[in-house]
TrEMBL record:
Keywords: Membrane, Transmembrane, Transmembrane helix. Pfam families: TRAM_LAG1_CLN8 (PF03798). It is found in: Membrane. This is TLCD2 protein. The gene is Tlcd2. The keyword Transmembrane applies. GO terms for biological process: membrane assembly; phospholipid homeostasis; plasma membrane organization; regulation of membrane lipid distribution.
């Protein structure tokens, strides 16, 4: 068994234990007690804790040459970071599957399936780790997405904090989600001759799925927080 797979399994177990014990650490407010599972799930997110994903931008600051080769090279610890992320997405996938109806969670389950497959390839092959790190830049916006959910569940919608978070959320959404996915799609297109056909197919399908999903979510956020 490769060290990467062991790290994935350890990450899965750690997030599972954290999910079980988190309600004692962060008790749900009265408005969220009807949905205790969702409250635990949000607070288990690495970005909320804060997280395992946050070192991703630091890797690019410390290793500016990383963007020149996203296939074969990566800074120390980057492979471990991607493996830990796979463990988290697996745990969240199982958590939603066990606690939420399929018609309510199919979009996130689909999203997690794509991420697990793409990141799993990077972990197993020790390649495309840099590309996976670029994808983790998307999770910077998740900090504000999850804070939005927490404020909604705590019934704090009509507050200055919620309004400020809504503005920052949309701003980081454009920069770290839409722009990042556009850059990744462009990189795949420009490097299609240097990427094996099977890997190129997985990456292309992944981008074709993730980009429309994120644009639709952006529209929903814009409509809910500003035009409702």
């Amino acid at each position: 068994i490769s060290p990467g797979l062991l790290l994935v399994a350890g990450s899965f177990a750690a997030f599972r234990l954290l999910n079980r014990g988190l309600e004692r650490l962060v008790p749900p407010p009265p408005s969220a007690r009807r949905n205790r599972w969702k409250w635990r799930n949000i607070w288990t997110e690495p970005e909320t804790l804060p997280g395992t994903h946050s070192p991703s931008p630091c890797r690019f600051c410390l290793h500016p040459g990383l963007s020149e080769d996203l296939v074969g090279t990566h800074p120390p610890g980057a492979h471990s970071l991607v493996a830990v992320s796979v463990g988290y997405f697996l745990e969240d996938f199982v958590d939603m599957l066990c606690n939420q109806k399929l018609h309510q969670s199919w979009e996130l389950l689909f999203h997690h399936s794509v991420v697990i497959v793409c990141f799993g390839i990077a972990v197993l092959l020790h390649q495309y780790v840099g590309f996976a790190l670029v994808a983790l830049l998307v999770e910077i916006n998740s900090i504000f997405l999850h804070l939005r959910q927490i404020l909604l569940m705590a019934n704090l919608v009509h507050t200055t904090c919620y309004r400020l978070n809504s503005i920052v959320n949309l701003g980081t959404y454009v920069v770290f989600r839409i722009a990042t996915l556009a850059w990744m799609t462009r990189w795949l297109f420009l490097n299609r001759e240097n990427v094996p056909p099977a890997t190129y197919a997985v990456g292309t399908v992944g981008m074709a799925i993730m980009t429309p999903m994120n644009i639709i979510l952006f529209y929903r956020l814009l409509r809910s927080d500003f035009f409702k």
